[in-house]
Amino acid sequence: MHTVAVLALDQVIPFDLSAPIDTFGWARLPDGRAPYRIKVCSVAGEVAAGAFTVRAPHGLEALAEADTIIVPGTAEPTLPLPPGVAEALRSAAASGTRIASICVGAFLLAATGLLDGRRATTHWIAAADLAALHPAVSVDPNVLYVDNGQFLTSAGAAAAMDMCLHMIRRDYGSAVAAHAARMCVMPLEREGGQAQFIVHAQPPAPVGATMEPLLVWLEENAGRDLTLEDIAARAGTSARTLNRRFREQTGTTPLQWLHRARVRRAQHLLESTSHSVERIAAQAGFGSPTAFRDRFRRVVGTSPQAYRKAFRGAPAA
Question: What is a GO molecular function of this protein (predicted)?
Fold first, then answer.
C-alpha cells in the first residue's frame, strides 16, 4: 500500500489539507481495495486551521516512512519553517520520496531549496512573490500544476485535486484515477490552465502620465477596428514616437494594451451574454473570429467556448 503523508503546519489552509485527503481517499483498485494509506503529521499534535483545530496523530517521523509527501499551504507561507521540517523534507527527498505542494505550500517547499533550478507553480496571485523570494525557482503562474517527476507543485486548492488525480494515474493507471475523479465529482482533466482565472489588469501608467487620457480613450474604443496610426493620430504624434512613449509609461505597446482590453471585453461578454463567438469577436474589436480565438487562447489559456462554460452564470429561475 502506498503511504501518503500530509504535512500540516500551523495555520494550515483547511481546503489545502482536505483536498489530498479526499482525492487519495476516494481511490479504489479494481478489486475494491484502497491503494493509499493517508497519514496527517505535524510538528505539534494540534494545528490551527482557521475556524477549527486539526489533531495530527503523527509527527515528522511519518515523513521518512511515506512514499508521497503533500505540503499544504499556510496562512503565513513566508514565515521560517518550524525546526526540523526542512531537514525532514530534504532527507525524504534524498531517499527518493515524491513531494508535492499545494497552493502557497510552494513557498514552504521552496524554502528547503528542493525547488531550486526547477519549474514550479503556485496560486496566481502569489506567483510574483514566490519568484521574488526564491529567484532560483522558475515560477509558471499559468498552469494548474507542474510535475518535475519527484517534485510537484499545484496552483489553488482545486488544482491540487487535479494534481492528485494526475499522481493516482501515474501510480495505478487511468481507470483508478477516473473512478477517483467521479467520486470527487470533477473531470479527470480540465481544459486550460490557471491563466483563465487570472485577472488580467492593464499595466498602470504612472500618476500624472501624459498617456493617461489616451489609455481612457483606448479602453472606451477597444471595440473599434483601430490601427497604430489611428491611435497615434489621437495622441497627436507619430507612430514611432507613440510606441516609445507608450512603452516608457506602461511597459507595453499600444497594440498589446489594446489587445488585452479587447480580451477583457470579450471575457465580460462571454460571462454575461449568450451571443455567438462570431458576434463577440466583432463586438470586442477583433478582425475575425479566428483572430479572436487565437488571441483569447494566448492570453487566457483556453478557448472562448471553454471559458464561457466555466464562467457564465446560470440564468436566474
Answer: sequence-specific DNA binding
**What phi and psi values does residue 36 have, to the nearest 5 degrees?**
-120, 140
Beta carbons within 8 Å of 312's beta carbon, 6+ residues apart:
270, 271, 272
Q: What is the CATH number of the domain that holds 112?
A: 3.40.50.880
Class of residue 209 by CB neighbours under 10 A (exposed 0-12, middle 13-18, buried 19+): middle
Distance CA 146, CA 302 (A): 17
**Rounded to an integer, what distance in angstroms lies between the CA atom of residue 300 and that of residue 309?**
14
Last residue of a domain, one of 167, 195, 223: 195
Domain-located, residue 278 = yes
254 shares a domain with 126: no
Q: Round to whole Å and give the CA distance between 134 and 119.
A: 12
Judgement on whether residues 36 and 182 belong to the same structural domain of the protein: yes
Q: Is residue 234 situated within a structural domain?
A: yes
Q: DSSP label at 58?
A: B
Asked if the model's pLDDT at residue 196 lies above 50, the reply is no
Percentage of residues in the chain with pLDDT exceeding 70? Answer: 90
Residue 227 has pLDDT above 50, yes or no: yes
